[in-house]
Amino acid sequence: MKKTLMTVLVGGAMSTLNAQDLPKPSPPGHVEQSVGLTKVSIDYSRPSQRGRKVFGELVPFDAVWRTGANQCTRISFDGPVQFGGKDVPAGTYALFTIPGLKEWTFILNRNTELWGAYDYKKEDDLLRVDAEPATCGPIETFTIDLADVKDDGAVLQLRWENTCVGVAIHADATEQGLANIQEALAKPDADFRVYNNSANFYLDRGMNAEQALEWARKSVSMEKKYWNLHTLARAQAANNMMKDAVKSAEESMALAQEAGETGYVKKNKDAIEQWSMDR
Question: Which CATH number does the domain 174-278 belong to among 1.20.200.10, 1.25.40.10, 3.90.1720.10, 3.10.350.10?
Answer without folding.
Answer: 1.25.40.10
